[in-house]
Amino acid sequence: MKKIILIILTFLYAGHADACSCGWGGSFLELCPSADVVAKIKILGYEDYYEHPFAEDATPLTLVAEAIAVYKGKIESSEIRFRGDGGMSCLKYVEQFIIGKDYFILYHYEKIGEYPGLGVCGEFDVEINNERTVEREYLSFWESHTSVTYVDDFEDDILYTLNQCANESVLPEDNLALNPQTQSCEPEVRILKFVLLCLGAIIIFIFIYSRYKKKKNCQHSNKI
Question: What is the signed CA dihedral for 19, 20, 22, 26, rounded to 10 degrees?
Fold first, then answer.
């Protein structure tokens, strides 16, 4: 019997490892432009508890939060629910969020009727300490970094990073929409980068060609 239980646990662990095989997606500010929603939230509580057959305590699967500010995208309600990991998906556990605390969070829209997931393959959320500072631990080129920033400064960094993607107003009531759709402004950024790259290539070509012509003229003058 013990061998059977061990085999089952091994199978479940292997399934969870396969489901959560993902690389580091980037820091919070790096992920902002591609996210559907970037917001500041307050954690209200947990819902939808799952009873594990091999654990004493149940695991909450749903995180309930209140939107404080919405920097990008639209939300259906000021009260937002998120899907967490129940042990078999590549999501963050709901209990990792502390009730009563504020967080910066970003996420992608899901199918109608589904809650957005708590991303784990990158810095999808940032905890706010004492409503004043943001202490972050994140990866960059496979190295761990820790930084402490004032909340106001971090908000400015978010808005600066979003640029034209940022909402005109960050008030939740100004950014409500039924069944919100993805409105990414990344293509405009890519086009701008492409244009700048082309201009740079043209300038380099003109510079090299002018140097070549000058050198050729000098050689012709020396022969004369």
Answer: 140
